[in-house]
Specification:
There is one protein chain. The relative contact order is 0.11. The protein is of the alpha+beta class. It is globular, with a radius of gyration of 25 Å. The chain is 26% helix and 33% strand. The longest helix has 18 residues. Strand 4 and strand 5 form a beta hairpin. The strands form four sheets. The protein has a six-stranded mixed sheet, sandwiched between helices.
């Protein structure tokens, strides 16, 4: 992309009511491209999650927004103003890191008040703001405690309070729940979402945890190898994955090779099924995505396919069964258990069959 094309795209972005625009953002380290032509806009009061495996570029993208990295190419706009060269302390954003980065020699109050003291705010105002933050993060009465005496979840709340007390327009969170145990992590997911809604500020959240993304986000940005694979709300990302990578990364999926016989008719696993997709041509190779919970087990006399239950695992809210039909072994989630070794029918309704171009044909 040349400078003229970039200027055109920047001019178009400035006409939109976006808080942040990333336009053609690229980043290189020692000649290796770690971000490739990232195009993304973020609205006010939105909870956006950058989701992907390790090394996909999500943290680098966050660091560019925060000012800790400078893009090698492209433009970064904040309310229409180019801020690529603006240092972090001049941006209306604050960051919460995975390791919290609290000051161990300071108590909770002084950790939260640190930024306000640098601004030389009056003590009374600092006291009021710190107390408000302690109440917001459910740590009222903890001001005099040393941070090293707190649990991981409490330390994380202090880090969030320290960032929020400066009233940023955007809060950046880099895998902040990664060090917490499973139950606490789930509790904090709900707390963070509730906090974001109460405050009405923009959260940009980085994680490799699909459940976190689906639970908290207004918008999910799925990334792989430095490029965006799909942007959408959680339901769209889960129900309508753009490609096999997204389907496999977000939740669990059966991904089969199939043939699109014609519009709304697809063949896979040795049988032909009605579906709702069209526009793939006739007798065209496709990938077929079936979510485990969307496959129904019925009597073998009424099944579209018939198979044998090869294994059964109890997963708490459902049973996970592997059903071997001969052509393919399906992963099925059901609240009703079928005994290992039994013969069952498999039915799939048209709406639950998702068709995509084969993986090797994706750009």
């Amino acid at each position: 992309m040349n400078q003229e094309q970039l200027n055109e795209r920047v001019a178009k972005a400035r006409q939109k009511d976006h808080l942040i625009d990333l336009i053609g953002i690229g980043k290189e380290y020692d000649g290796v491209k770690v971000l490739k032509d990232i195009d993304l806009y973020i609205r006010k009061k939105e909870f956006v999650t950058l989701l992907g495996p390790s090394g996909c570029g999500k943290t680098t993208t966050l660091r560019i927004i925060g000012g800790f990295e400078t893009p090698s190419e492209g433009a970064l706009l904040f309310e229409g103003q180019e801020i690529s060269d603006l240092p972090p302390y001049k941006r209306r954003v604050n960051t919460v890191f995975q390791k919290y980065a609290l000051f161990p020699h300071l108590n909770v109050y002084d950790n939260i008040a640190f930024g306000l003291k640098l601004k030389k705010m009056p003590k009374r105002m600092i006291d009021e703001k710190v107390e408000q933050m302690l109440e917001l993060v459910n740590l009222k009465g903890y001001g005099k405690r040393h941070v090293e005496a707190l649990s991981g979840g409490q330390q994380q709340r202090v880090a969030i309070a320290r960032s929020l007390v400066n009233e940023p327009e955007v809060l950046l969170l880099d895998e902040p729940l990664g060090a917490l145990d499973l139950k606490l992590r789930k509790d904090m997911q709900l707390e963070l979402k509730s906090m974001q809604q109460r405050l009405g500020i923009t959260f940009i959240y980085v994680t490799h945890d699909q459940e976190e993304a689906l639970t908290m986000s207004d918008t999910i940005v799925v990334m792989k190898d430095g490029a965006i694979q799909q942007i959408g709300d959680p339901k769209t990302i889960y129900d309508e994955p753009a490609n096999a990578f997204v389907a496999d990364f977000i939740g669990e999926s059966n991904i089969l090779r199939g043939t699109m016989v014609k519009d709304e008719l697809v063949s896979f696993a040795g049988e032909t099924f009605p579906c709702v997709d069209s526009g793939f041509g006739e007798n065209a190779p496709v990938d077929v995505v079936l979510r485990p919970e969307d496959i129904m087990l019925v009597g073998e006399d009424v099944g579209q396919l018939v198979g044998t239950v090869k294994s059964v695992l109890f997963k708490g809210v459902h049973y996970e069964m592997m059903i071997d039909t001969g052509e393919y072994t399906f992963k099925v989630h059901s609240t009703t258990m079928q005994p290992q070794g039994s013969r069952v029918g498999v039915n799939i309704v048209p709406f639950n069959i998702h068709i995509m171009k084969p993986m090797q044909e994706e750009n």
